[in-house]
Amino acid sequence: MAILLTGVAGFIGFHVAQVLLERGDEVIGIDNLNDYYDPNLKRARLAQLEGRKGFKFFKADISDSAQVTEAVAGSDIRRIVHLAAQAGVRYSLVNPEAYIRANVLGHTVILELARHLPKCEHLVYASSSSVYGGNTKLPFAVEDRVDSPVSLYAATKKADELLSHAYAHLFRFPQTGLRFFTVYGPWGRPDMALYIFTKAIFEGRPIHVFNNGDMQRDFTYIDDIVNGVIRTLDNPPAPDGQGRPYRLYNIGNNKPEPLLRMIEVLEQAIGRKAEKQLMPMQPGDVKATYADITAISRDVGFAPTTPIDVGVPKFVDWFRRYHNQV
């Protein structure tokens, strides 16, 4: 069975591809290897996959339907894991067009591809906890209203959910959206706080702690995320009361941690203290995230097992090896 995986050189995509290949699936990976963050990290991830049985890679931009169509030509694709996107809340203030192109147009290209595939069993796509925007009720539940985004990135992810709902209604192919909550771990993204803090501490530079440290995040370890993605992929949604095979899940650790506690765990793993510079809240940011995972736990058996006391040291161990730190 062939599985199309977009964003295969990205953080989550790389780890999902590894597990799919290990269990014997054929993976057709697409990525444009853009320079939003260091492409060398993306190429290093890709190097771990290339040459493995069942893996094919195509450099393609998901917003270009011709490139995507060419990449999948002749493949018997049954499932799609669509993770490619323009990530990052703060960068959306600088380059909004990149988010419309990748996240809205790109998502539409994948939807069009899926609806014309004769044997598409399930499309799983990445949404984000950012869609909860200015919501103050915790934990965030999939039933909550999400019509108050506080960043362009969040708005594009909500647009993806609406587009997918419309396609499920019109064309009846199964889809599941996953709202990811602060994913971290080995091979993680350099634009995320854990990576930024770790690099700064090793280099003896201060770290910027926003909202004066009064923040909480539902930090979710990559292995738990991958387990949830695979479980979801293997369990397509049944049609609802109106015949739509569509659902949304939160996928998080279900345990928000104070940012300052995460920094303490990081300091212990590195063996050095951080010099903290307390800063005001960044535009587009939110104070707290907390995933209600009742639905995904009930439906597919998702059960995260990795606290930050375990996951953060694993990230630091990888960081040391990758960057030759002592």
**What value does the average pLDDT take?**
94
- The portion of residues forming beta strands comes to 15-25%
Q: If helices are DSSP runs of H or I spanning 4 or more residues, what is the number of helices? A: 10
Q: Strand order, biggest sheet?
A: 3-2-1-4-5-6-11
The name CATH uses for the topology is Rossmann fold
Radius of gyration: 19 Å
State the helicity in percent bands.
Answer: 25-40%
- CATH arch. level architecture: 3-Layer(aba) Sandwich
Q: Give the tally of β-strands.
A: 13
Give an overview in words.
With 326 residues, this protein is of the alpha/beta class. The chain has one domain (2-183, 220-254, 290-305): Rossmann fold (3-Layer(aba) Sandwich). Helices cover 40% and strands 17% of the residues. It is built from 10 helices and 13 strands. The chain has helices spanning 11-22, 39-49, 65-72, 96-116, 152-171, 193-202, 222-233, 259-270, 294-300, 308-323; strands at 2-6, 26-31, 55-59, 77-82, 122-128, 175-180, 183-184, 207-209, 216-217, 220-221, 246-251, 257-258, 276-278. A 7-stranded parallel beta sheet has the order 3-2-1-4-5-6-11, sandwiched between helices. A two-stranded parallel ribbon has the order 7-10. Strands 8-13 form a two-stranded parallel sheet. Strand 2, helix 2 and strand 3 form a beta-alpha-beta unit. The longest helix has 21 residues, at 96-116. It starts with a strand and ends with a helix. 47% of the residues are buried. The model has no long low-confidence stretch (mean pLDDT 94).
